[in-house]
Amino acid sequence: MKRVLLAIFTIFLFTFGFAQSAGAEGVQSKDERPQVKLTDEQKAELGKIHEDLHVKKKELINKYVEYGVFTEEQGKAMIEKLEERYSKLKENNYMMRWHHYHKMKERHLR
């Protein structure tokens, strides 16, 4: 019985130990991520695209309010949140930050 338990324990140890180290190979740490500097032309192009998206998202929210899917209050709250995110994006020169994604990915690989 002890040998069976030892064998099962050893299999689990090797299985989970190697799976964790193999999954962490492609992940870059914060220090290894490339630091990209956008030119003014690139920022302008990204800014135009983001502005178009921002306008379209506001139109979409207003249509949902018009059709009764969202209340006026919900629509206003959604547009406020959208405005906050857009202003932060502009402050960061249209460099999207995915902190929550990288944190989740790093936490998963531990």
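Second entry:
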Amino acid sequence: MSERYLPYAADAEQSLSPDELLVLRRQYEREGSQVRVQTKFNYAWGLIKSTKKAEQQMGVYLMHEIYSEHDERKRECLYYLGIGYYKMGEYGNARVYTEQLLALEPDNKQAKSLRELIDARVSRDGMIGLAVSGGAIALLGIAAAAIFKRSK
């Protein structure tokens, strides 16, 4: 599948409407135990794009199945596994799959874009974490000073 048919990582922030996801789910369920790989892929893709973590997790699970069973879909799966883990906040896993794709295709614009999103989120969350922990340390210091002052 050529790169122009896959969205850039910025599309990771867009989800399908409930009706669109329902169409994919019905097709997946209709095919049952004989589900075609494309139908399974479409459903996994739709779930990954969801705003609901449980649906994202199911999408990642299905994408892992496709990855392990269909060599011809590994490239696409790597990309969407990266997006799925990114959306779930599992940035280490997101990075692993994105880097695997970049090892196969160093000039892949989607993977580069996704890596930038991951790096930005990790950086932002790291700064938030530092601010929160700094605030907690300050509160502990104030509490310790108050206790020390009372004990005198």
